[in-house]
Design goal:
The protein is α+β, with helices and mostly antiparallel strands. It contains twelve helices and 20 strands. The longest helix has 16 residues. The protein is globular and about 65 Å long. The two termini are 31 Å apart.
């Protein structure tokens, strides 16, 4: 049986072994605030944020280069100066994230980084699992055009059972870093051709669900199409992108909810939710992370407004049978209002701030989607609503870079 998904090793570009890797890696660009970006730049002159998320300088530079051209020059300089090293042979990268929560519970996510072959959505076995929000992809495209480097990976979930058994790391990691949340990030180089082939073939046997990085995936497709239209259809480097692949399994994933902040709504939210859900008042002081942990047992969401908070338990006969996710049901309810606007946040404190300090109409704590629900969506080749899943922890930028050349 031929593989349905292309996944392969590549010539990696990495930071040289350094005890200072803590200060070199960075969170994904799309979760970094302007304040965080400045802090990361200050942490080290070669922090990955300077490659993955460059900013315009206050004063125009005499060389006339824009921020993306400066990144391209920076990559050349860092490689020539020994900050980065281009490896001599093709390899995969084993990458492990170890997180410990406030209760002392340890979760481990282990995956493998390689080059994932591009496919147009709907034509193959790379499956977006969420609708995407409108977002300016010009930034990512300009960066890719200027550098021809994948500066951060997308996150893919493989439906091949037992995949994680094939890439368990051996020996000491090449790199190790601890982020501000206490998550330990470790990586190992895997170049043994027999193991590499086994892993690539196993990933190739099943579809890949895009967990994070939908916009980077779409940008890579756009760049591939540009190259082909310009007569560069043989540009093999542009036919793939850097991907971190993890087995779609409960013991490998920590899936959290992305909650809804209802900025405005033309209807009273308590009345609106009451038409679809059974409401039970809850103490406002209990609306925190601990409360969100018991929603699954109740089968409920929590509606929060300036006047109070309620468990909102959906009445199943009030929704179409195919709507099983909290994100789907909230969207269904809000669609009955004449007008509304919604923002998204995974942090419960942000919801309280939005309602009580910023005068949002309300907020809704959702239950996280389960691995089984993610798998079902993949098997039916449908998509969840935008901003349904928050995978934790987040892979760091700077673990490895992939040049298209």
């Amino acid at each position: 049986m031929l593989p349905v998904t292309s996944f392969s090793p590549f010539i990696a570009l990495r930071y040289r072994r350094s005890p200072d890797l803590d200060a070199l890696v960075a969170p994904p660009y799309d979760v970094i605030s302007d304040t965080q970006r400045l802090a990361l730049e200050d942490s080290h002159p070669a922090n990955a944020v300077r490659i993955d998320y460059p900013r315009d300088e206050v004063q125009p530079r005499p060389d006339g280069l824009d921020r993306y051209q400066r990144v391209a020059r920076r990559l050349i300089s860092w490689t020539a100066g020994g900050v980065l090293a281009r490896e001599a042979e093709h390899s995969l990268t084993i990458y492990r994230m170890t997180a410990t929560d406030a209760g002392g519970n340890v979760s481990i996510t282990t995956g493998v980084m390689g080059a994932l072959g591009l496919e147009q959505p709907g034509t193959g076995d790379i499956l977006p699992h969420e609708q995407t929000t409108t977002k300016d992809k010009a930034d990512r495209l300009s960066l890719l055009r200027a550098t021809r480097v994948n500066t951060s990976p997308i996150w893919g979930l493989s439906m091949t059972p037992g995949l994680n058994l094939l890439y368990q790391p051996e020996g000491s990691p090449l790199h190790r870093a601890v982020d501000d949340d206490g998550v330990v990030h470790e990586s190992w180089v895997l170049s043994d051709p027999i193991r590499v082939q086994a892993i690539c073939e196993a990933i190739g046997r099943s579809p890949i669900v895009v967990a994070d990085g939908h916009h980077r995936f779409e940008t890579a497709l756009t760049y591939q199409e540009e190259r082909s239209a310009a007569g560069n259809s043989s540009d093999a480097g542009a036919s793939a992108l850097l991907a971190f692949v993890v087995e779609l399994a409960d013991d490998q994933l920590d899936v959290r909810a992305i909650h809804r902040i209802i900025r405005t709504c033309t209807e009273d939210l308590v009345e609106l939710f009451g038409r679809f859900c059974d409401l039970q008042a809850v103490d406002l002081n209990l609306v925190d992370v601990a409360l969100s942990n018991e929603l699954e047992a109740r089968g409920s969401m929590v509606l929060l407004t300036a006047s109070g908070a309620w468990f909102a338990t959906p009445r199943l006969d009030s929704f179409p049978a195919e709507l099983t996710l909290d994100s789907e049901r909230v969207a269904h309810m809000l669609a009955t209002a004449a007008d509304h606007s919604v923002a998204f946040h995974h942090d419960v404190d942000a919801l309280r701030t939005a309602v009580f300090d910023e005068s949002a109409a309300g907020a809704v704590l959702l239950r996280p989607a389960t691995v089984q629900q993610i798998r079902k969506v993949a098997e039916t080749r449908t998509r969840m609503p935008a901003k349904t899943t928050f995978f934790w922890p987040k892979p760091r930028s700077g673990i490895v870079f992939r040049s298209l050349d």
